[in-house]
Fold:
Amino acid sequence: MEYTATYNTDIGIRKSTNQDSVAIRIIDTPDGQVAFAIVCDGMGGLAKGELASKEVITSFCRWFDEEFTSQVVEQSFTALRLRDDWNSIIQTENRLLGIYGSDNNIMLGTTVSAILMYRDEFYIVHVGDSRVYELHDNKVRILTKDQTFVAREVAAGRMTPDEAKVDPRRSVLLQCVGASAKVTPDFLKGKVQKNAVYFVCSDGFRHQISDQEIMEKLGPNNVNSMEEFKYGCVYLTELDKNRKESDNITVAAIKTK
Structure:
């Protein structure tokens, strides 16, 4: 499998700081190319959200650059080891950010959504309400489940999706890294599809745009060059802003072939 990638991040129209953080890695290995993308959305209503998101991104990138590459060279990579590594990063960052917040009398936290594509499999770790999507065969599929109050209520049948969209509690997270006493990440695994686009985004990217608009600008059959790929991310970000999205906006996208 071969990969190309792009990203876009924007402070948006109302925030004074961009509390989102993003990173992408693509490397060549004896097993073929490997792709990794991660987005962390620092809590908008919490102090130092940008610090929380940056710290978690830094830890994951350090893991990829050092631990994961060593596992590839040593042929010691397993899905179980990956899950243990990722869970360890999240638990450590949750503890360290909690200590920092306590020492400085503030509360800070961040979502985490990341995808690793290796040996034609994808692996996802997820905390919060950032998302990972798959665009394939003209279908838009959300691979993650939002860890929010309204998502839980909809799943339990106590709220309709339309009610959830306008509920004042729609941004309330059930957990995040740094501000939760306990964090239980979601882990997912699946098959990487050829001629597909996988993207990770903060919630600000997806609120104001439709699945059809996403497919038109980022769908694999509509992206024939890096310029078009980058333009699709920027176009959708600007569309969000024109529709008065108030949050930071970030997307990291990877195309397969």
User: Anything to note?
Assistant: The mean pLDDT is 95. The longest helix spans residues 49-74. Residues 104 and 147 are 27 Å apart (CA to CA).
